[in-house]
From TrEMBL:
Gene encoding the protein: hemN
Iron-sulfur found in the keyword field: yes
Protein name: Heme chaperone HemW
Family according to the record: Belongs to the anaerobic coproporphyrinogen-III oxidase family. HemW subfamily.
PROSITE patterns named among the record's database cross-references: RADICAL_SAM (PS51918)
One GO BP annotation of this record: porphyrin-containing compound biosynthetic process
Radical SAM core domain: residues covered: 23-265
Organism of origin: Microbacterium hydrocarbonoxydans
Keyword Cytoplasm attributed: yes
SUPFAM superfamilies, sorted: Radical SAM enzymes
Predominant localisation class: cytoplasm
Length: 412
């Protein structure tokens, strides 16, 4: 399970938004729907997820109805604030959303669409474990309005999947992708590199397998050891080695090279998208939902532990599904806390998020006292000089590998 919730101010029991919240109706609005259930907890995962043995006081079969109750609270709160807007993107994340019956996911999407509306051409994504994807499931999702499936492939190598505690067989990924495409869904596959015992050759094999799937989008994330996870405990006991930073850098460079050669273009440090045929753009298949986060749009997060952001106000829900259900059973908001970050914190976040995008961040959006540091970052090969001369800070390949150092230089 994830770590403790952040500290903050008490959240209103009725879920209402502050009367002075400066909501801009032109800002895009998104919804995140968290499904906190997993069959097995992966050793590296610190997300707010629960296996069946950890669900005391909560039932999976009641979950869709419970979450729909939170949608009703959000509809009232946004309506009273004059901020009801159609959803540009919807994302079902987890956990494993497809552990729920596809009909439950469809009900949740229909409730959100009825409350807020769906913008024309809205992107609606469902995360899925390959073992839970069948032709029947994806047809139900497609009929409900889902447009995109994000499949947790992680690796094509059995011993790497085992090191990550992933339970699916590599061949099931191909079956899941084929089913999604047959239903007319766009497809993204997620990869993780740097697992204990994974070699550069293993990673190359996974990249080749992902490219053979002919998906529209590939995410590749370096394995990060999070405190409190099974993997962190194994490393602390000396049972498995700590990930090698140099090897992970080699893996990232290999991924970028292979994906670029296959017609993918990076648009965020860990994400690559392929152009649609004849579109004239190489970024049509970017995750619009994730871009909404990185660009600071408004979103409401539904479900246990979900976080929300509207007009600079942030709040987060109680973590356990039982506590979440108990709040909503009495028509109370499940929000556990709220905060309005100050200008300095918002500036740090803007730099942290926007600098990771291929489009970069405008030099004029950096803290005024730190803009002169861009020259040093160019000299170190971390920032593209031509883009900087044009007024934007864009990371080079070396800069992507050292993105955290770039952020520190621009914000400290």
């Amino acid at each position: 399970m994830a770590g403790p919730l952040p500290l903050g101010d008490p959240a209103p029991v009725d879920g209402r938004l502050p009367a002075d919240l400066p909501i801009d109706p032109a800002v895009p609005f998104s919804a995140y729907l968290h499904v906190p259930f997993c069959r097995v907890r992966c050793g590296y995962c610190d997300f707010n997820t629960y296996t069946s043995g950890e669900l005391r006081g909560a039932k999976q079969e009641d979950y869709a109805t419970t979450l729909i109750s939170e949608i009703a609270i959000a509809e009232r709160a946004l309506g009273e604030a004059g901020a009801l807007r159609p959803m540009d993107t919807v994302f079902f994340g987890g956990g494993t959303p497809t552990l729920l019956p596809a009909g439950d996911l469809a009900r949740m999407l229909d409730a959100a669409a009825s409350a807020f509306g769906l913008a024309e051409g809205a992107e609606v994504t469902v995360e899925a474990n390959p073992d839970t994807v069948t032709p029947g499931v994806v047809r139900t999702l497609a009929d409900a309005g889902v447009t995109r499936l994000s499949i947790g492939m992680q690796s094509a190598v059995p011993h790497v999947l085992s090191a990550l505690d992933r339970t699916h067989r590599p061949e099931n990924v191909q079956t899941a992708v084929a089913a999604a495409k047959d239903a007319g869904l766009a497809v993204s596959v997620d990869l993780i590199y740097g697992a204990p015992g994974e070699s550069l050759g293993d990673w190359e094999r996974s990249l080749d397998a992902a490219l053979e799937l002919d998906s529209d989008h590939i995410s590749a994330y370096a394995l990060i050891i999070e405190d409190g996870t099974k993997l962190a405990r194994q490393i602390r006991r000396g049972e498995v080695p700590t990930p090698d930073d140099d090897l992970q850098a080699d893996m990232y460079e290999l991924a970028d090279s292979r994906l670029a050669a296959a017609g993918f273009e990076w648009y965020e440090v860990s994400n690559w998208a392929r152009s649609s045929a004849g579109s004239g753009s190489r970024q049509d298949n970017r995750s619009r939902h994730n871009l909404a986060y990185w660009r600071g749009s408004d979103w409401w997060g539904f479900g246990p532990g979900a976080h929300s952001h509207v007009a600079g106000l942030r709040w987060w829900n109680v973590k356990h599904p039982a506590a979440y259900a108990q709040r909503l059973a009495t028509s109370e908001s499940p929000a556990a806390g709220t905060e309005r970050p100050g200008e300095e914190a918002r500036m740090l976040e803007r730099v942290l998020l926007l600098s990771r995008l291929a489009e970069g961040i405008a030099v004029e959006d950096l803290p005024a006292g730190n803009r002169s540091r861009v020259a040093g970052l160019i000299a170190d090969g971390l920032v593209d000089p031509a883009s900087a001369l044009g007024g934007r800070v864009r990371l080079t390949l070396r800069g992507r590998l050292l993105a955290d150092a770039v952020v520190r230089a621009l914000t400290d």
